[in-house]
Amino acid sequence: MSDTPTAHPELLAWIDDVAALTTPDRIVWCDGSTEEWTRITDELVASGTLVRLDPGRRPNSFWARTDPTDVARVEERTFICSTDPDDAGPTNNWMAPDEMKATMTRLYRGCMRGRTMYVVPFCMGPLDAPNPMFGVELTDSPYVVASMRIMTRMGSAVLDAMGAGATFVPALHSVGAPLAPGEADVAWPCNDTKYISHFPQTREIWSYGSGYGGNSLLGKKCYALRIASVAARDEGWLAEHMLIMKLTSPEGQVRYIAGAFPSACGKTNLAMLEPTIAGWTVETIGDDIAWMRFGADGRLWATNPEFGLFGVAPGTDRRTNPNAMRTLSRGNSIFTNVALTDDGDIWWEGMGEPPAHLTDWRGQDWTPGAATPSSHPNSRFCTPIGQCPVLAPEYDDPRGVPIDAILFGGRRATTIPLVTEARDWVHGVYLGATLSSETTAAAAGRVGVVRRDPMAMLPFIGYHAGDYFQHWIDMAKGATGDAEKLPKVFYVNWFRRADDGRFLWPGFGENSRVLKWIAERLDGRGDAVETPIGRVPTASALDLTGLDVDKADVEAVLRVDRAEWEAELPKVTEWFAKFGDKLPAVLWAELDALRARLRDS
Ligand code: GDP
Ligand code: PGA
Ligand code: MN
Ligand code: MN
């Protein structure tokens, strides 16, 4: 290759190897320019993958429908390929690296025939970071290219910054749908055979068969969580499935809060929340991923490695998440598997009254009262974070922000109170390690089943979860050995339900009331009662000014029910037993102490 925009020898050699294996018709280097975006989205419109939305209402925005079998992350097809199966642990699928590479090499052979192979240089986090985290994705999907331009810092500037020597994560992606000469393409090419494979020792990613974001935008889950979690373990930092927000009190006191909730459990909403209590503001830093490193001051500083928002569409509305609606109204977005209105706009469940007619996510006519929802429950918007009207200026600062509190949360109809404060760091790690949530449509499989999802990282830990827990505990040693400087840990649950099935807590903007209590606790104020599970506010400790809510509901959402908690104990025992002697002994001790406190309560 002579006319290449880089002289990076490893990059050039890898591209040659992949091209020889996958035999694309042509290779295109992505520069990240507006012209390139226009060309690629025009091509996607021509091929039927994208439909251009009404430019008056949704400028430069597009509607995409996937194949109905390719709508979510596929956890059963996601592999951690460490040499030793013990390094992948009981929560990951494992295959030996050589075996996986042999299998996938057979699949990749000729798989880009009839297609273009795009070279997508990207950087996770700001390009001016002291240690920019580079990656290069090779993909045969122009939908992936367009999405990567929204979700990452991408293009020529990255290639220039890489020079001829920078290390990068090579990330190979194919939809697995070669075209014979003259064969017509389909709107959403993919393959029934799917592999999302990670090679943590060599820091490589190989993805095959899916075009869905979580499986194909390889900078996100694959790099910034699975591969980065391994780097973080080795180098003493944390790569986590967390939102990052800036909370400012009426007095102007700033608190930075990170929060880990499983997919489709409220991160994006909390990250851009519009407070309902006077004088408080929330600004967004990140909505899905936090990289947290110790600063020289001994505190944990968090950055958002992403550049866009890839958010759950259904439920997003002017009333629930007005800042997301404002972000989207600025255009430049891709909507996948939502419904299309007859006048070229988008609609999804939860966005007010449905229009009289829609084209649903399967491309069928849809009218109100239809048996199936118009939008897939895991339909997504993909939009530049720079368009968020409450974006904190710090979001782009390579130093990040010092984290005051970490929230763990899940979707639990019972048992878990609205908010609980951990007694100390190890107790906080226990809360994270035992975090549980009802499954959602963000991953293929059954929905609504309670499962343990430690630190909301079950699908994303790139190594043995027992070692991961130990790594979290070891963070207490920190940079300075001063555990006092670590964030305080809280456990939240916006999803507790009454017997009749309704949510006990109004959620969304009203969650600012919980944030206020957390801020007060960080100040050493705010009333809390010691319970066997941790510190829980009394109903009177929460600011409920102006909130139209039944006092009995507030008491119910805060309740620590001994019988419910005793029912959790055997489940936690069973969960911990999975990890054998890799489970840190202090976590067993936490469980024993909880059991004893419940008995004595
Ligand atoms: P993420 O995938 O963790 O980023 O979760 P999202 O913020 O996208 O929310 C997932 C779904 O949960 C959406 O349908 C939201 O409308 C809904 N949701 C988010 N926050 C709340 C809340 O506080 N209460 C309730 N009831 N639903 C919420
Ligand atoms: P989410 O991100 O956490 O916003 O749902 C996508 C995912 O985790 O699959
Ligand atoms: Mn996520
Ligand atoms: Mn989200």
UniProtKB/TrEMBL annotation:
Substrate binds at R73, Y212, G213, G214, S263, N378, S379, R380. Mn(2+) binds at K221, H241, D288. InterPro entries: PEP_carboxykin_GTP_CS, PEP_carboxykinase_C, PEP_carboxykinase_GTP, PEP_carboxykinase_GTP_C, PEP_carboxykinase_GTP_N, PEP_carboxykinase_N. Binds 1 Mn(2+) ion per subunit. SUPFAM superfamilies: PEP carboxykinase N-terminal domain (SSF68923), PEP carboxykinase-like (SSF53795). GTP binds at A264, C265, G266, K267, T268, N269, R380, R411, F508, G509, E510, N511. Residues 237-597 form the Phosphoenolpyruvate carboxykinase C-terminal P-loop domain. It is an enzyme of class 4 (lyase). GO terms for cellular component: cytosol. GO terms for biological process: cellular response to glucose stimulus; gluconeogenesis; glycerol biosynthetic process from pyruvate; oxaloacetate metabolic process; propionate catabolic process; response to lipid; response to starvation. Residues 14-233 form the Phosphoenolpyruvate carboxykinase GTP-utilising N-terminal domain. The keyword Repeat does not apply. Keywords: Cytoplasm, Decarboxylase, Gluconeogenesis, GTP-binding, Lyase, Manganese, Metal-binding, Nucleotide-binding. It catalyses: oxaloacetate + GTP = phosphoenolpyruvate + GDP + CO2. The active site is at C265. Pathway: Carbohydrate biosynthesis; gluconeogenesis. Its cofactor is Mn(2+). GO terms for molecular function: GTP binding; manganese ion binding; phosphoenolpyruvate carboxykinase (GTP) activity. It is found in: Cytoplasm. Monomer. Catalyzes the conversion of oxaloacetate (OAA) to phosphoenolpyruvate (PEP), the rate-limiting step in the metabolic pathway that produces glucose from lactate and other precursors derived from the citric acid cycle. Belongs to the phosphoenolpyruvate carboxykinase [GTP] family. This is Phosphoenolpyruvate carboxykinase [GTP]. It comes from Mangrovihabitans endophyticus. The gene is pckA.
